[in-house]
Predict the 3D structure of the following.
Amino acid sequence: MRFVRFANVAFAGLFAGFLLTVLVLEHSLRPFDGHVYTQVRQVELVRLDTLASVTLLPAVITTVVLVLRSWRAPAIAALVLLVGVFALTLIVNLPINSDQADWLVATPPADWADVRDRWQLAHLARTVAAIIALGLLISGRKRSAE
């Protein structure tokens, strides 16, 4: 179980850190026009979806293992948050990512800023949820070590 707890906090931490980094980058893009935003988003989409998958999925799986082994409230709450992050990603962020991959840098769609705002708001929500989940997992780890 020590390895599972370590892997859990490691993957949840990497995932939360990744989301926070993207949040800062996205916030930095706000003053720029649609051409710059589109180009940067398309660069992000080359590998960042993969990074999200290889950190979120193991975080969820190891959290499920912790819940099944301990039934402790912090692990259960963290699991609910991480599943919520996964659902929000599937419902909002991934469809927008798919659309943005086809945007032309020279001619972003007229509603590009509205789409950006929708994506960034959903991303903010999942970043906050992932950070809270990480905090819960760390606090649960400390309690189980006592």
The mean pLDDT is 95. The longest helix spans residues 34-70.
